[in-house]
Amino acid sequence: MASKILFLDIETKPAVVASFGIRDQHIGHKQILKDGGVICVGMKWLADKKAQVYSDWEHGHKEMLQIVHAALEEAEAVATYNGASFDLPKLQGEFLLHGLPPAPHLTQIDIYKSVRKLGYICNKLDYVAQILGLGSKVKHEGLDLWLKVMNGDEAAQRRMTKYCAGDVMLTEKVYKHVRAFISTHPHMGATKPLDCGACGSSRTQARGWHRTKASIRQRYQCQACGSWSLGNAQRA
Questions:
Q1: What is the pLDDT of residues 44-94, one digit of tens each?
Q2: 195-221 CB burial, b ≥16 within 10 A, e <16
C-alpha cells in the first residue's frame, strides 16, 4: 500500500491597513483594518495524478478549511516547501479562528529545509526547480492577480487556481528529485525492516558500516531512489 503523503501549498491574501505613507513605514496592530488569511489551498496525494485546489470563491472559507483539516487527519506525512514555517502555522491559526480543532501532530517533510543544505545561490522553489530541469512556477501578473481575485474577478480566480495547483505539482517534482538528500525523511516504507524508508522500495543493499564510539550499524542504500538508511545498532 502506498504511503499517504499529502503535498500541500496555500495562498494568502494581503491584509488591509491604514497608513500615512508608503516609505519606511512601521505598521502597528491598530492600523490593521482587515487581516489577510488563507484564500486557497492546493493539495495532492502522492499516488494521485492531479492536484486539487479548494478556495474561498468556490467552496467558502470554512468549508475549504474543513476539507483541508480532514486531509491532514488522514495524512501519514505532509510534504511542503517552507510549510513548517509558513503554510502549516497559517492553517492552524485559521482552524482556531473558525472553531475547528487543531490538526493532529503532523509528520512533516519540509523540502525547503533540505534544499537549503545543498549550497545553491537561491533556494526559492521556482529557481531550484529550474536549475534541476523540472520546470517553473506558473507565471502571473503579480499583486494585481490577488487584488482581482479579492474583487471577485472569475478569470483571475481561475488563474489563481491554476497557479496554486502548479505550485503543488512542482513541489512534488522537486521532492521526488531530492528525496535521497532529505536526511530527516520519515520512514514511509512497509513493515519490513529493510524496506526503503523514503520511497518504500524493497530494493535496498547493504553498503558498509556506520560506527560511533558505542555502536556499529549496517548501512543500507536504496537502489530505487538512492537514499541511505541504518540498520539496528550493535555494540561495538
A1: 999 899 999 999 999 999 999 999 999 999 999 999 999 999 999 999 999
A2: bbbbbbbeebeeeeeeeeeeeebbbbb
Show the domains of the chain with their CATH numbers. Answer: 5-17+29-181 (3.30.420.10), 189-236 (no CATH)
| Residue 203 · residue 157 · CB < 8 Å | no
What tens digit of pLDDT does each residue of 189-198 get?
A: 665 667 887 8
Phi (first) and psi of residue 79, to 5 degrees? -105, 130
Q: Nine-digit cell at 157?
A: 480566480
- Residue 134: how many other CB atoms lie within 10 Å: 17
Query: At residue 103, what are phi and psi to the nearest 5 degrees?
Result: -65, 155
